[in-house]
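Thread: quick sanity check before group meeting

JM: Hey all, I'm pulling together slides for Thursday and realized we never actually wrote out the predicted structure for the chain we discussed last week. Dropping the sequence here so it's in one place. If anyone has concerns about the input, flag it before I start.
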Amino acid sequence: MIAKVTSLKNAYIDLTEKKPDIREKEAFLKVAFTIAKINHRSLIINDYLQAVTLVDCNLGASKLEALEKIAKGLV
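JM (edit): ok, ran it. Output follows.
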């Protein structure tokens, strides 16, 4: 699963054309793991996708749709 999350993280970086610092990357993972923990399950790709939408509130609809398509391809 970590490889799939890494692939989605790299896709996010490519789409947004910005290089998040280590704190931003850590924030995405912390939020994703918290979402999984709240739902009493292991981390899934949709948890990371939801974390990205929560942490990056300026993410455009077209970029979000592209990330969702990538996530569906990774599942």
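AS: nice. Helices lie at 2-16, 22-38, 45-55, 61-74. The chain has a mean pLDDT of 89.
JM: adding both to the slides.
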